[in-house]
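check these C-alpha cells.
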Amino acid sequence: MNELLRQGGPMLGLILLVGMGAAAIFLERLYYLHRAQIKWRDFLLGIVNILKRNNIAEAVSICEETPGPVAQLARAAILHHDEGPVRVRRAIEETGLVEMPRLESRLPLLATLAHLAPLLGLLGTVLGLMRMLLTIQQKAPLVHAGDLSAGLWQALLATAAGLAVSIPAYAGYNLLLARVASVGLDMERAAMELENYFAHNPPAPGAA
C-alpha cells in the first residue's frame, strides 16, 4: 500500500483525502436522514389523540423530543392552533422552509467532491505523462521500459483512484437526494393532515 501511494505521486494522496471526506459526509447525512424519516402517520395519530384530550403541553413536548421535520411541523401548528387556519398554514410553511435546508445540508459539498475526484485523477495522469516525457528527454536515445514505469504508474494510479472515489461518491449523492425527496414528500403529506385537522378540530381554548 505504501509503495502504491509513493508511486501514485502527490495527487493520489489528495484524491484519497477527497474520498475520505466524501465518505464522512455520506455516512453523516445517511444517519441524519434515517432519523429524520419517521412513521409520520403513526406519529400524527398519537399527537391527535393527545390533542383530543386537550393536553397541548404534552403534544408540544412530544414534538420537541421526536427527531425529524414532521415533528417540527406539528409543533409549529400546535403552537399557533388558536390563531386560525391561515396562521397555522403559514407557521407550517415557515417551518418547512427552515427544515428543508437542514435536510439538504452538505449535499452540494458531496456533489463537488464527486466531480472533483476524477479531475484530480486527470491532473495526476497528466503529471505522470509529463514525468514520462521528461525521462525520455533526459535519457534519449537510450530509454528503457523501466525508466518510464514510474511515470506510467503515476498516471494509471491517479486515473484509477479518481474514478474509484468519484463513482461511489456520486452514487451516494443520488441516494441521499432520493432520501431527501422522500422526507420532503412526508412533510407535504403531514402538512396537509395538520392543516385539515386544525381547520376542522381546533383544540379547546385554554387547553394545556
Notes: The chain has a mean pLDDT of 90. Helices lie at 2-8, 10-36, 40-52, 56-65, 69-79, 85-104, 107-139, 145-200. Residues 145-200 form the longest helix (56 residues). Residues 154 and 183 are 43 Å apart (CA to CA).
